[in-house]
């Protein structure tokens, strides 16, 4: 059995419908690549993060890899940096303050 480590995909565009279309297409390509290369996709590790400074958080996107739907999260710890969906960085600032004060 072969394993691949975590992977991250970033998309940016001013048009939300275009982002959605691109992501759905790329997820199909990823699923096919995993199948061709004999890799398994851990269904419990699928997450989706949507970042915006405009406050127009998109609800109801039904993104999936095969049968596994991506769960939307509001905060991600990415390489030790805590990023919130609104890009305010309060959680990261609080974490740094706690480390400095302890």
Provide the fold topology.
Blueprint (H helix, E strand, L loop, with lengths): L15 H21 L10 E3 L14 E2 L2 E2 L1 E3 L1 E4 L2 E4 L5 H12 L1
Parallel strand pairs: 1-4
Antiparallel strand pairs: 2-3, 5-6
What would the keywords be for this entry?
102 residues; globular; alpha+beta
What features would you describe in this structure?
With 102 residues, the protein is α+β, with helices and mostly antiparallel strands. It has a domain of 59 residues. It is built from 2 helices and 6 strands; from the N terminus they run αββββββα. The strands form 3 sheets. A two-stranded parallel ribbon has the order 1-4. A two-stranded antiparallel ribbon has the order 2-3. A two-stranded antiparallel sheet has the order 5-6.
Compact description:
This protein is of the alpha+beta class.
Distance between the termini: 43 Å
Our count of helices gives 2
Could you give a short account of the major beta sheet?
2 strands, parallel
Decide which structural class fits the backbone. alpha+beta
| Unreliable residue runs | none
Mean pLDDT over the full residue set? 77
Order of helices and strands: HEEEEEEH
Strand order in the sheet with the most strands? 1-4
- Shape verdict: globular
Quantity of strands, as a count? 6
What's the helical proportion of residues? 25-40%
Oligomeric state of the chains in view: single chain
Q: Give the radius of gyration.
A: 16 Å
User: β content, as a range?
Assistant: 15-25%
């Amino acid at each position: 059995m072969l394993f691949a480590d975590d992977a991250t995909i970033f998309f940016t565009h001013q048009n939300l419908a275009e982002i959605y279309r691109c992501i759905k297409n790329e997820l199909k390509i990823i699923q096919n690549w995993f199948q061709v290369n004999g890799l398994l996709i851990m269904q419990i590790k699928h997450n989706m993060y949507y970042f915006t400074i405009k406050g127009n958080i998109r609800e109801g996107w039904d993104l999936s890899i095969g049968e596994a739907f991506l769960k939307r999260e509001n905060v991600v710890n990415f390489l030790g940096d805590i990023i919130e969906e609104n890009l305010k960085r309060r959680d990261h600032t609080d974490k740094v303050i706690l480390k400095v004060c302890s």
